[in-house]
Amino acid sequence: MPGFRELDDLDHLLIDRLLAGDTLTEAARASGCDPKTAYRRRHYNAGFQVALLCGRAEELAPAIRGLSGLVPLAVTVLQRVLQAADADPATPMLKLKVSAAQTVLDLAITLNEKRAAAELRAGVAGAATEAAP
Fold it and tell me: CB-based burial of residue 78 (10 Å sphere; 0-12 exposed, 13-18 middle, 19+ buried)?
């Protein structure tokens, strides 16, 4: 089970690099630490885990909000297509709209699941942090 330790400057550097898309090894090298140190912090420090998960959740929030605004439109497009008796599914514009609507719905579901999973993991890590002596 991960332990808890207050975050230091190195932790913040590693988290920033990981949020920027670096692998753990790349983040370690860019931050000037041994990859084993980065690994231990990533896998065994609950405070580090919570901070990283919160950072990832914050990154997803704008995308989720943007897609959430498109979900009603995507549903309307699909409803209209399904209700139209004479709609030719081979029409290029219709195919494009249906494809776009399906993509919006798929992405909205995926991002929402990722956000929920990140919140759950952060909650579990936070509970472990609070339970730490």
Answer: middle
The CA-CA-CA angle for residues 118, 123, 125, to 5°, reads 95
Q: Can you give the pTM of this predicted structure?
A: 0.57
User: In the Cβ-directed half-sphere of 37, how many Cα atoms lie within 13 Å?
Assistant: 12
Query: What is the tens place of the pLDDT at every residue in 60-118?
Result: 788 778 888 888 888 888 888 777 766 666 677 778 888 888 888 888 888 878 778 77
